[in-house]
Amino acid sequence: MTYRPPIEDIVHSLNTAAGLPDLIARGVLEGVDQALLASVLEEAGRFAAEAIAPLNRVGDLAHSQLIDGRVRVPDGWTETYHRWREAGWNALSGPSEFGGQGLPQTIGMAVSELWSSACLSFGLGPTLTFGAVDALHMVANDELKRTYLPKMVSGQWMGTMNLTEPHAGTDLGALKTRAVPQADGSYRITGTKIFISYGDHEMTENIIHLVLARLPNAPAGTRGISLFLVPKYLLNPDGSIGRRNDLRCARLENKLGIHASPTCEMRYGENEGAIGWLVGEENRGLNHMFIMMNRARLGVGIQGVAIAERATQQALAYASERKQGRTAGMSADAMVPIAEHPDVRRNLLMMRALTMAARAICYATARELDLSERASDRNERARAASRVALLTPVAKAFATDIGVEVASTGLQVHGGMGFIEDAGAAQHYRDARILPIYEGTNGVQAIDLVTRKLPLEGGKAIEGYIGELQATALAVRSSTQPLLAGIAPLLEGANAALERATRFLGRALQSGETDVALAGATPYLRLFGLVAGATYLARGAAAEVEASTHRAGHHVQLACVFARQMLPAADGLATTVVEGAQSVLAADPSLTRA
Ligand SMILES: Cc1cc2nc3c(=O)[nH]c(=O)nc-3n(C[C@H](O)[C@H](O)[C@H](O)COP(=O)(O)OP(=O)(O)OC[C@H]3O[C@@H](n4cnc5c(N)ncnc54)[C@H](O)[C@@H]3O)c2cc1C
């Protein structure tokens, strides 16, 4: 099934959820206007549909393979990557002093959605390079930046992120990889990292690994972790590619999905020790890596949107063609496309509405990221940074849960064919399933939201955000468009539910009942995502009403579907947060032991 870049939906979301016109008018996004946005999206959409989308099935079937110690990516992969980077796509939002085009995150994220929709495995590689570029740009010394950033920004070299070890996944404090300082200022790295995406391949002439490791005598736990840059090939004094560093891919994982993305077990320093350089300060590696992880988390949220969009397009196409059953009054031998059955209609509408809600949350987060970096006023930058911190776990976890849900519904819409690989719906479902797991599991995102983000600014950050959601509900109530005005009570009720759950969690944390808050974290994040998503859709609908002389267009209709189908659950989720924790905490431990 071909991929159709949803440019109109993306632009609508950028304009209404990310408030691009406001950012442009205020000069925050220097040099960007609607014409530039349209041409970037059109060009990227064409490349995604024509060059990348055909790789999706090929990569799923061929897998990346480890042959005689070399990682081979599927046919067509390397050539397409080179065409892609030569067209300047890798450099789009890279820092301009190192050859990037310096475009804002809002546009960078929108374009990333196109790459990942076309082929999730393909889009993953650059997502990691972007994160590595961000981390180096912010914390590396000038020499490392000068040496490595230009080629990473252009995409000539790719970047990776090496955190996970066999015994240290979520709990990075347990990691054991060691880094020993040398007289020449370099370090020798020794250890094993697992599950490293794009850890090895020959798509680029070099791969720049960012590796977490411990210095000798480093404090135990997360306070003793440092960040190192470890290239696959060392560089000669003139900057050309030199000898191979002491690192290798020992195996490739056999996975449920994203088969084309090489997921590597990386061995560092099996001989003399892999040579690397410290990035930033000693023992502050986890903080530095968090720079990369926050961007990467939003990037993974965008992957959730991307796979949801692709699965929706596939289901819409199938449901328009597949004929089964009759509607009232039809002759016995006639059949209708399944899209006409109310239950299938509901599935298809929910797929569209959920995808748009997840997209809106991610783009709204990207807006704050841009403001945190580009606003002229220091206070505005600080306020935006706090909003980024609040929204990032929601963008990552809600959007990736939606990716899985929508891909699963898409499979359901296909009936039996959904389970048959040839139809393609199954691949989206398999590919989507990693998204709630990597880049910090969604459970960990929920815990981050509740324990670290709700207390931000003494609770003022979440209070301010809920205030903005309430203001939208109030504006919707006075809309002249009756369908839209009709969902105001649902928005108001959902806001009240979010406020109730937020207050409860705040009290639980303050009174030291941390486990009660932890047990309610995942339903709370879901509640947060539903209310935020419904609100952004309502804002988009209001903009549509204004622009189309009060007609109930597609955005009004989808905002209503979302509000009426999903928001009644808000109060129930709040009750789960407030009253459900004890049932989990009081249950006999033997119930959850093998
Ligand atoms: C395909 C793929 C690609 C990946 N790419 C990369 C990569 O490029 N670089 C990299 O460094 N890593 C990568 N990873 C690793 C990935 O980020 C980890 O798998 C993930 O962080 C979870 O760690 P774990 O697998 O050790 O699970 P565990 O940490 O063992 O967690 C298992 C379960 O327990 C829960 N849990 C654990 N601790 C807690 C806690 N304190 N509180 C509540 N719940 C908890 C988790 O939420 C999860 O549900 C990749 C993984 C895969 C499968």
Describe the structure.
With 594 residues, the protein is of the alpha+beta class. It contains 22 helices and 12 strands. It has helices at 7-16, 20-25, 34-52, 55-62, 77-86, 105-118, 120-139, 142-154, 285-321, 342-374, 378-413, 416-419, 425-432, 442-453, 460-477, 482-485, 488-510, 514-519, 521-547, 554-566, 568-579, 581-585; strands at 65-67, 70-72, 157-162, 178-181, 187-197, 206-213, 226-231, 233-235, 241-244, 247-252, 263-268, 274-279. Strands 3, 4, 5, 6, 7, 10, 11 and 12 form an 8-stranded mixed β-sheet that branches. It has a two-stranded antiparallel ribbon with strand order 1-2. A two-stranded antiparallel ribbon has the order 8-9. β4 and β5 (187-197) form a beta hairpin. α1 packs across α10 (342-374) and α10 (342-374) crosses α20 (554-566). The longest helix has 37 residues, at 285-321. The mean pLDDT is 96. It binds flavin-adenine dinucleotide.
Give short descriptive properties of this protein.
594 residues; alpha+beta; 8-stranded mixed β-sheet; two-stranded antiparallel sheet; 22 helices; 12 strands; binds flavin-adenine dinucleotide
What's the main sheet like?
8 strands, mixed
**Global mean pLDDT:** 96
- pLDDT < 50 runs, ≥5 residues: none
Strand content: 5-15%
Distance between the first and last residues' Cα: 43 Å
Q: Which small molecules are bound?
A: flavin-adenine dinucleotide
Number of helices: 22
Assign the structural class, choosing from mainly alpha, mainly beta, alpha/beta, alpha+beta, or little secondary structure. Answer: alpha+beta
Q: Roughly how many Å is the radius of gyration?
A: 24 Å
Please state the overall shape, judged from the principal axes of the Cα atoms: globular
Helical percent range? Answer: 55-70%
Total beta-strand segments: 12
